[in-house]
């Protein structure tokens, strides 16, 4: 499956970057922008956390009714540029660093296909009545692309429930950590946060 970025804006990126680097940068930039805007705007946060709109925020900004968010300057949120099945359920998890996508077969057949991403590594496995089977386990060079082939066709997506556990970077639950030395308790020597 060819990578299709939904909102390419690459004018200011280094000329020597390949298409994967540009796609990764754009999606991350948009997701961080969305996260920071959600921290400042409780209505935007509420809209983003609305299950009927979350996939639109992460993809092209639209659901069947049109754009899901218009800011105070009348600009529409045009999405983060990801591509997801329309009926994906998204869980925004403050404790997760990298996304994990689950496809669980609907009905009596207990089968789940898991796609777990982490830095430079993709792992895909299925679990069901016949046990756990590794479909793919790949270590990648930096800024490379991993192609995962699901064991079903596009039309079969409706037979699976898709759940994306997505890292949540909205700093509304974050904290500022200040570290002091014993002999100088009034001025912090280290100040950090997770973002």
Net shape: globular
In angstroms, what separates the terminal alpha carbons?
32 Å
Oligomer: single chain
| Strand residues, percent | 25-35%
| Number of E strands | 10
Order of helices and strands: HHHEEEEEEEEEE
Largest sheet: 6 strands, mixed
How is the largest sheet built, in terms of strand order? 3-8-4-5-6-7
Low-confidence stretches: none
- The DSSP helix count reads 3
- Helix-and-strand structural type: alpha+beta
- Residues in helix, %: 10-25%
Which radius of gyration do the C-alpha atoms yield? 20 Å
What's a concise summary of this model?
The protein has 195 residues and is an alpha+beta fold.
Would you give an account of this structure?
By secondary structure, the chain is of the alpha+beta class. It has three helices and ten strands; from the N terminus they run αααββββββββββ. Strand 1 (62-63) and strand 2 (66-67) form a beta hairpin. Helix 1 packs across helix 2. It is globular, with a radius of gyration of 20 Å.
């Amino acid at each position: 499956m060819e990578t299709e970025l939904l909102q390419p804006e690459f004018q200011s990126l280094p000329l020597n970057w390949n298409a994967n680097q540009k796609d990764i940068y754009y999606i991350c930039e948009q997701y961080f922008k969305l996260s920071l805007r959600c921290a400042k705007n409780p209505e935007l946060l509420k809209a983003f956390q609305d299950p009927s709109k979350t996939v639109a925020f992460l993809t092209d900004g639209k659901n069947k009714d049109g754009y899901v968010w218009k800011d105070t300057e009348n600009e529409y949120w045009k999405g983060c540029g990801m591509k997801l099945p329309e009926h994906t359920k998204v869980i925004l998890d403050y404790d997760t660093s990298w996304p994990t996508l689950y496809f669980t077969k609907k009905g009596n057949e207990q089968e789940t296909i898991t796609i777990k991403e982490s830095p430079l590594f993709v792992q895909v496995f299925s679990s069901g009545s016949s046990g756990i089977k590794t479909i793919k386990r790949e270590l990648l060079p930096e800024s490379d692309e991993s192609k995962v082939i699901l064991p079903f066709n596009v039309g079969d997506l409706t037979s699976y429930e898709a759940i994306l556990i997505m890292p949540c970077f909205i700093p509304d639950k974050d904290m500022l950590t200040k570290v002091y030395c014993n002999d100088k308790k009034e001025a912090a020597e280290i100040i950090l946060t997770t973002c």
